[in-house]
Design goal:
This protein has helices at residues 6-18, 29-38, 55-64, 80-88, 101-116, 148-159, 167-174, 185-197, and strands at residues 44-46, 49-50, 53-54, 71-75, 93-96, 122-125, 128-131, 136-139, 142-143, 202-205, 209-212. With 215 residues, the protein is of the alpha+beta class. A hairpin with a 3-residue loop joins strand 10 (202-205) and strand 11. The protein is globular. The two termini are 34 Å apart.
Length: 215
């Protein structure tokens, strides 16, 4: 997230973290550029007016360099011409301040689904019926509740069926940069997923990582 307003940035970070996602928050484009070059982010939330430049220029530079990371613009600039400029520069969505935090969560989920290659929020995995939009899982008529971290981990596997994720990659997706993480945290989350969804829902490839299994 690239946002220089401290109050808004804190509120957005808490909202996205409550959804189970890790959030790295910077307030200047210089820091954002360094982060974008060194970390494979799943999504960028971009303000347009930053202390050291224009967010639109940052976006154009990233797209010109071949960066396809999805971008949602968050800005007070609400003119139609501003929206057109942002979308034409390569943004995937455009949200005008002030906005409802629950709407931001919905837009983040929608954009990430599109980039995962399956915009349909309804997924059938064995006996599990999964709705990514409202974050529900049912086995028959029985609802299964996951914590925010468990959901974020499960959604990571759902977005790329068959893909192998190392422990380090999963930690990056669940926790922000610099967070203190216990050495067995990912194993604990996966154990909980298996207890709730079925032992085979996450496969372990010894010495390599984890991938989506069957339910």
């Amino acid at each position: 997230m690239i946002e220089d307003n401290a109050d808004l940035g804190q509120a957005v970070r808490e909202q996205i973290a409550d959804d189970g996602h890790a959030v790295d928050w910077v307030q200047r484009l210089a820091h954002a550029d360094l982060g974008a070059q060194t970390t494979p982010y799943d999504l960028i939330l971009l303000d347009l007016m930053l202390p050291d430049g224009r967010g639109i220029d940052f976006l154009r530079q990233r797209r010109a360099s071949g960066d396809t990371t999805p971008v949602i613009i968050l800005t007070a600039r609400d003119q139609l011409s501003d929206r057109i400029e942002g979308l034409n520069a390569g943004a995937d969505d455009y949200l005008v301040k002030p906005f409802d935090l629950s709407e931001l969560s919905a837009r983040v989920a929608a954009v990430t689904r599109r980039y995962s290659g399956n915009p349909n929020p309804q997924i059938q995995l064995g006996e599990l019926r999964i709705n990514l939009a409202d974050r529900t899982i049912r086995r028959g008529e029985v609802a299964i509740d996951l914590t925010a971290r468990e959901w974020a981990l499960f959604e990571t596997f759902l977005q790329r069926p068959g893909a192998l994720f190392s422990k380090a990659q999963l930690e990056e997706r669940l926790y922000e940069f610099g967070a203190e993480i216990e050495s067995n945290t990912i194993e604990v989350h996966i154990s909980h997923l298996r207890k709730k969804l079925g032992f085979k829902v996450v496969e372990t490839v010894r010495g390599v990582g984890y991938r989506l299994g069957v339910a």
